[in-house]
Amino acid sequence: MIKIVCVGKIKESFYKEAIAEYVKRISKYQKLTIVELPDFDYDKVKTIYEEEKLIVNNLDKKDYIISLCIEGKKVDSKTFSNLLTDSFTTKSNITFVIGGSYGLGEKVKQMSDLKLSFSDLTFPHQLFRVILLEQIYRGFKIINNESYHK
Amino acid sequence: MIKIVCVGKIKESFYKEAIAEYVKRISKYQKLTIVELPDFDYDKVKTIYEEEKLIVNNLDKKDYIISLCIEGKKVDSKTFSNLLTDSFTTKSNITFVIGGSYGLGEKVKQMSDLKLSFSDLTFPHQLFRVILLEQIYRGFKIINNESYHK
User: Fold this and answer.
1) Which of A11, A42, A121 to mutate to test the interface with B (most CBs of B within 10 A)?
2) How confident is chain A (150 residues) per 10-residue block, as mean pLDDT?
3) ipTM, 2 decimals?
4) pTM, whole model, 2 decimals?
5) What is the DSSP string of A16-61?
6) I need a surface site. Which of A7, B30, B50, B126 has the fewest CB within 10 A?
């Protein structure tokens, strides 16, 4: 099973539809659940602290935990697909963690088996969720040798 | 003016809506036009060759031409916003070029003033167009010191 733990509501309808579409496509390959936690609007330190408490409550050390953060390792799509395969050979669940506007707290990073960075650019969390889901879907297409250009 | 020269139609309605939304938001800061060229479905060499011919016809050497390709330079969002500012101080137009599934031909790369890479990951061209537009919009928000978290 794949679990995505993320912060903040999706407001734009087009992002909601994009997310629903990729969740549907991924469901052919793996069970996927999205745990959407509330975001906070305090200063940076307090926001990260409050969000971290909720994120940690939704992490299970038995899972392979992959955090998305700017200082993480950069991979290409083929390597990302290998990561999916490798994780599932040792663990039955993969959990991806996407932080809020201010990023992830240290505790979440320490609990992670792997930190990944998709880009040096900053993306809105709504768009980032689409990017991650598309990449997971692409990963399964690569694993299964299925063509996928679009 | 900003021009985006890109290859392939947008099929998914949610991507169409996302693109329309960011085009609308960017229009408060700069005139933006999207030149959407047909894609081809030959082998890699012929596809790149045919797409390149059309792309080159839509490039103007007077513009500041930025090509998006995997071997390009990686920048963060702040540096990307500086690029927008710097380009407009020397040229009146910026042209971004997004290739098709097989990437850009050498001629387009040689005509470019700058090559940028947003990620080591491969994205579908439809999603990539959203990512570029969002980053241009974010760039203008940064330039104008406007808050933008979402």
Assistant:
1) A121
2) 97 97 97 96 94 97 96 96 93 95 94 97 96 98 84
3) 0.94
4) 0.96
5) HHHHHHHHHHHTTTS-EEEEEEPP--S-HHHHHHHHHHHHHHT--T
6) B30
